[in-house]
Design a protein that fits this description.
The complex is a heterodimer. Chain A is built from 7 helices and no strands. The longest helix of chain A is centred in the first third of the chain and has 56 residues. The radius of gyration of chain A is 24 Å and the shape is rod-shaped. Chain B is 35% helix and 32% strand. Chain B is built from 6 helices and 6 strands. In chain B, 30% of the residues are buried. The chains are: A mainly alpha, B alpha+beta. Chains A and B meet through helix 5 of A and helix 4, helix 5 and helix 6 of B.
Chain lengths: 184, 234
């Protein structure tokens, strides 16, 4: 009788361990998939920047320092194989450089009215919205994954199979800085 | 024993009379309230040059998320539509019935009423339901469905969010949208993003006195939905 009880307990524990392990693997894959999605959107963002710089150059060629800062920040951000935290750091530098580029554009009314510039600006804003949405989805998955790793009893399985915490991707969200528009 | 018997003999008819009086009062109040509500709706329709139908069964099948598709004898009454400040909307009183049977076999029918107001989105999105901590509205989300959690603890405490596509859910719930949903005017009702519509579900019939406020509030939410959700990537 006791043997069967022990066997039943062992079977239940093994089944639980399998389910917990599979759950962690599934979450880790989801985190990776969400990161690849962000990577795609960041690539799209980086691809827009050379055209944007060239368009601004056509009207404000003497703002060389600003163009160089954007180009350098873009090159650093587009460097492949960075961790989410490193990537976030580079993206923040790029966002600041782009902010200065748009500040330059403010001083040139003809540039602000340029159709190509307006289109690039809209596309960049859309892409940044996509990056922000991807970041929220990625971070939500990281939060789930890390919580699972840290909480008992799943933490036992996580330690046994060397699951490590995923990094959050924390960038400045250009959209979040704008004040909300509320109409009643 | 005789005293108890005579008390019952006198008390039972008195109780019956009391029940009848309460019932008649309730019926009169209901009648007067429905007349007042109908007059208020007519006034709103006339003031804003809106369309109006007493009842339209087709509206009961417009949406599929709860409270639609639940119960039986589904009805859509006092359908009002048109534009307010240049933006289209539609509102109607939606009701359905559910039935329960007690241990003695007595069947009780309950009528559930919701004021539905919806405004169009720029394009279709996967269904996302949001219910506040209002007990009457909590039942609209399926039990056991995964609640989408965002970066705001206050939002997570106040709203239960269930969506068909989590990625789109996180895309809609931008920091500004989250902030909007934490403002007091948005509370007290449930919201559904379904197809190309944002639907508001209020747990009681409205006389449309708050129509402009509700439509304005819904449009303020629609304006915060990121445009890229409706556009193919370049």
């Amino acid at each position: 009788m006791w043997v069967w009880i022990v066997v039943a307990i062992v079977v239940v524990v093994v089944l639980w361990a399998v389910v917990a392990y599979n759950g962690l693997v599934k979450l880790r894959n989801l985190v990776q998939e969400a990161w690849h999605q962000i990577d795609t959107e960041l690539q799209r963002r980086h691809d827009l920047i050379p055209n944007l710089v060239e368009t601004v150059k056509g009207y404000a060629a003497h703002e060389r320092a600003t163009f160089e800062a954007v180009t350098e920040a873009r090159a650093a951000a587009a460097n492949p194989g960075q961790s989410p935290a490193e990537q976030a750091k580079q993206e923040n530098v790029l966002t600041q450089a782009l902010g200065r580029l748009f500040a330059v554009a403010e001083a040139y009314p003809e540039l602000k009215a340029n159709v190509n510039f307006l289109q690039l600006q809209t596309e960049l804003a859309n892409t940044e919205d996509r990056v922000a949405a991807g970041r929220r989805f990625y971070n939500a998955n990281v939060r789930d994954f890390n919580t699972r790793i840290e909480t008992v009893p799943t933490s036992i399985i996580a330690n046994m199979f060397h699951f490590v915490q995923a990094e959050y991707f924390e960038t400045e969200d250009p959209a979040a800085r704008q004040a909300p528009t509320v109409s009643f | 024993m005789n005293g108890l018997g005579s008390a019952l003999t006198v008390g039972a008819p008195l109780l019956m009379v009391a029940i009848i009086v309460v019932g008649v009062c309730a019926a009169v109040w209901n009648y007067k309230e429905s007349k007042r509500r109908a007059a208020a709706i007519d006034a709103t329709v006339a003031a804003h040059h809106l369309g109006h139908l007493d009842e339209d069964p087709a509206r009961s099948t417009y949406f599929t998320s709860p409270p639609f598709g639940v119960g039986d004898n589904r009805r859509s009454r006092d359908v009002v539509w048109g534009t307010l400040e240049g933006r289209p909307f539609e509102t109607f009183l939606y009701s359905y019935e559910t039935h329960t049977t007690d241990s003695d076999g007595h069947r009780t029918t309950t009528t559930h009423r919701f004021q539905i107001t919806w405004v169009p989105l720029a394009g279709p999105v996967p269904t996302m339901r949001m219910t506040s901590d209002n007990a009457l509205l909590r039942g609209l989300t399926h039990l056991g469905a995964k609640d989408l959690e965002v970066e705001s603890h206050a939002f997570n405490q106040q709203w239960k969010v269930v969506c068909d596509n989590e990625r789109t859910g996180h895309a809609i719930l931008t920091p500004r949208m989250i902030e909007r949903f934490l403002q007091p005017d948005v509370g007290g009702r449930a919201y559904t993003f379904e197809g190309a519509a944002l639907v508001s579900i209020a747990p009681q019939a409205s006389d449309l006195g708050d129509l402009q406020f509700v439509v304005g509030m819904l449009n303020s939410i629609v304006d915060l939905v990121p445009r890229f959700l409706f556009e193919a990537p370049a």
